[in-house]
Design a protein that fits this description.
Gyrase A, domain 2; alpha+beta; 14% strand; 20 strands; 50% helix; eight-stranded antiparallel sheet
């Protein structure tokens, strides 16, 4: 294969060398950052010999090369002047070469920045909120506990994620901007420094460089830290540009934190506090005017927000609500009611269907959604796959949300999205309980009445997991505990069109990924999100965990094997940190692709509930 000719054509059809800012690659794809997407000809790229497909995704031009990837990547890097980072997605557009700054792109950039900055601290807020909840329950049972030193100290721990919110926001924002986090931390810490807080509490006035400083309490605020971190990002770049190299290590840090802190105390802090106040007042006005409708509407459309990954938009507003006014009447109620509605619809499907495997699967998913708050299997395994249950989810969410809005349900702590977390609603707990009950019952009844098309279940639902013992060497077993589904339903054109090969997709409920067969581990991709296995008969298999998870650069993947290692069927490959991975809002579908079956006959088995290393999912013989 003439890789020089192939790669020259790839660069040409991508808009030419001048249109390409940088190049990286993952397990299967060349990933180009391009200046103008309209100059890339996807159809022409797909027609090039050796190219399996070409798509746009994650703001990148992705050219799928399969086994031709590394030779093509090396050839391009040899002949063209691009930046490259193996396995990464670090290539970013230079300041003046980003997408056109129209209103739509600016709004999307702002939303992505805020959501990305806030998301990393949500798990901490949940931890603090749940600890507050536990302490509250203990005091209800044993009131004397409130006077103990243990209660006091644990109360400090529970308050930390909320009180020091500016610091955690600075962490997320600096990570999003790829700037020096320590400078951002210093400025954010200044906002909650004990002496400054004492000045605020004592009242009076103060100045900085002769300019007045508004004494505002910044603990539990979000927007001032976002603005200060943006200031740090641009100031550090500016000082690095103008200060001679010999003085950079001495002056850049000092000037960055001094200037950013001054701007924050004088301008960004008060302005951010004003914006936060406007947002809070807007939320309170919305509650008083449209509260009945808004919670029900949000709960009803959440399935679509989850499917598109845009549900993260509500996170900053939810965090702001907990900080001020101290409770959330919209977002947390809607999120919990969505989980209840997903669970209710799954239960309705389980009670209606005559298929034993689907009944077992749907009932377990339903209870998992309600009591564990795990909605992905319900969203993708029931509502989206069978379509009709989705109507039940929307109806249950709407009815439960209207009830919650009508009677004023309010969450006072950040907690898990499960019915077991209802104590976070404190004095409105009973209201929220009945709202959840309505969501479950209504969604369950609607899903039960509408049912699913039983005639299509034969190829979509399997019997319970079958042990892999005594199976032939031709058998391919499940790589994860969860639910298998057709590759065509994966939300990625390259995999769904089977450009990489035939295969099976899984919705993971367990966190351990295992080998589907015996063979040699020929590839462990940097980051741990993809693995190549070659069976003894030469059949080549690709395991790919999630879509665009290469961007995580290994975070969330605890790799247990080494390249070149001999594998037995069911041997552990990697352990996933599902709690973290779910906060990334990436598609976490686990893919098993037969990239080179060596002209052998490939037979896919029935889809449904599977156990890792146990359930047969295909035969290659």
């Amino acid at each position: 294969m003439d890789y020089k000719k192939i790669t020259d054509e790839i660069v040409k059809k991508s808009g030419g060398e001048g249109n390409i800012v940088s190049l990286s690659h993952c397990m299967t794809r060349l990933r180009f950052i391009v200046k103008d997407e309209s100059k890339a000809d996807l159809e022409a790229l797909k027609a090039i010999d050796g190219v399996l497909s070409a798509v746009f995704g994650a703001d990148q031009l992705q050219v799928v090369m399969g086994k031709n990837l590394l030779p093509a990547y090396d050839m391009i890097m040899k002949n063209y002047q691009f930046s490259g980072e193996e396995g990464g997605e670090s290539g970013t557009l230079p300041e003046k070469e980003k997408k056109p700054k129209n209103i739509k792109n600016l709004a999307l950039d702002l939303i992505n920045f805020i959501a990305g900055s806030v998301s990393p601290m949500v798990t901490g807020l949940i931890a603090g909120g749940m600890l507050k909840l536990v302490l509250m329950i203990i005091v209800m049972i044993a009131p004397s506990f409130e006077k103990t030193e243990t209660y006091t100290l644990l109360g400090f721990v529970a308050d930390v994620p909320f009180y020091f919110m500016p610091i955690f926001v600075a962490y997320g924002a600096s990570r999003k901007l790829k700037s020096n986090p320590l400078y951002a931390f210093i400025v954010a810490c200044a906002l909650v420094y004990p002496s400054f807080t004492a000045l605020v509490e004592n009242g009076g006035s103060t100045t900085l460089f002769g300019l007045p400083v508004l004494l505002i309490k910044y603990s539990s605020t979000m927007i001032p830290a976002l603005l200060s971190t943006i200031a740090v990002y641009y100031l550090e770049k500016f000082f690095n540009k103008i200060i001679p190299g010999i003085l950079k290590s001495v002056l850049v840090g000092m000037l960055t934190v001094t200037t950013a802190s001054a701007l924050t105390f004088i301008i960004f802090g008060p302005f951010g506090n004003l914006v936060g106040t406007v947002i809070v007042n807007g939320l309170l006005w919305t509650q008083g005017t449209f509260g009945l409708v808004v919670v029900g509407l949000l709960a009803a459309i959440l399935p679509f927000l989850v499917m598109t990954g845009t549900h993260t938009v509500v996170v900053p507003f939810m965090v702001q609500s907990f900080a001020n006014p101290g409770y959330d009447p919209f977002f947390k109620p809607a999120l919990i009611l969505h989980a209840m509605a997903e669970g209710g619809a799954s239960l309705g499907v389980g009670l209606r269907t005559k298929n034993k495997a689907l009944r077992s699967e749907a009932l377990s998913i339903g209870f998992g959604s309600i009591f564990a708050g795990i909605t992905e299997p319900a969203v993708y395994g029931i509502a989206l796959r069978y379509k009709k249950p989705l109507i039940g989810v929307m109806a249950g969410g709407a009815v439960g949300g209207i009830f919650a809005g009508l009677f004023g349900a309010r969450a006072y702590f950040m907690g898990k999205t499960t019915i077991l977390a209802l104590p976070i609603f404190k004095d409105t707990l009973i209201i929220m309980f009945f709202a959840c009950l309505l969501a479950i019952v209504v969604s369950g009844i609607v899903a039960f009445i509408m049912g699913v098309d039983e005639g299509n279940l034969k190829q979509e639902v399997s019997s319970p997991p079958i042990p892999a013992t005594n199976q032939s060497d031709s058998t391919i077993v499940s790589i994860v505990d969860g639910t298998s589904f057709p590759l065509s339903e994966v939300k990625d054109e390259v995999f769904s069109t089977k450009a990489m090969g035939e295969g099976v997709a899984f919705t993971a409920q367990g966190n351990v990924i295992v080998s589907p067969c015996s063979g040699v581990l020929t590839t462990v991709f940097k980051g741990g999100h993809a693995y190549g296995i070659t069976r003894d008969d030469g059949v080549e298999i690709l395991i790919h965990i999630g879509i665009n998870t290469v961007s995580l650069k290994g975070k969330g993947f605890d790799v247990k094997v080494k390249e070149g290692q001999r594998l037995d069927v069911g041997e552990e490959l990697v352990v996933l940190d599902l709690e973290y991975l779910r906060t990334t809002n990436l598609d976490l579908s686990v893919l098993l692709i037969f990239t080179d079956p060596k002209d052998k006959d490939t037979q896919l088995l029935e889809y449904g509930e599977v156990g890792n290393g146990l359930s047969p999912v295909a035969e290659i013989k």
